[in-house]
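Record 1 of the preview.
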Amino acid sequence: MKGKEVSGPWVLLTNDDGVDSPALVPLLRELSAIVAVRAVVPATECSWTAKIMSRFERLEVEEVDREGFAVWAVSGYPADCANLGMHTLFAEPPVLVVSGVNMGTNAGLAFLLSSGTVGAAIEGMLGGLPAAAFSVQLEGEDYARWRRHRELTPAVAELLDNTAVVTREVVAELLAGGLPHQASLLTVNMPPSTRPETPRRLTGVTATGYGSYFTTDGEGAYRYRFSGLQVREENARGDIAALERGEVAITPLRFAFEVPPTAEDCQRFERGI
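->
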């Protein structure tokens, strides 16, 4: 499938919820109204896979139809999809990588670092492109219904339409003016009350964590059990606080990991220099 022709600037769309995500087609409709879009997504759900890539596995890519839109389904992870879409499947690279809309929030540091949605955007950043990850917070019952039964209420279907509109407007701003000052990429989290007129705020990342993720399941065996997110430091300007106020949290991220060492730290750790 290498070398698919694309005419003019285009946006790469991916996600971590897979080719059957109910958020995919609404977003394809909205984005296609402003720019050419190519969707390269996992063939199955790949939540909580961060930026893992298929180093040792053979990847298969199949072009499928989703309500009239061509979608490339990949037997791999979100970051695989971003890399294939940027460098391999098409003759020219995209101008922007968009990941989402994720079914569930990715606000707070713990979810951000675990998210396959954000991982695909990071892959876009590493490919030298502007990138943005979009997620929507669902009410507990709605999230459980989606996770267990792959069912949506009419209200959630309307919510996904609304998140697609908000995403399109943010993407239009990124196409026109680029990322915020000094940002490496953007992550956007939308509340369950999202409508096109919902207030939007630039935020920071809330410091969060979690305890044990596993419970016993017989002798010598364990299974996943989420015990809840722990907010380590309250932040009124953070993404979680914005969601609690019913606002869209737009969070510029800068991947500058180094910390200037103090004289005391140099004395503690450096040797032979």
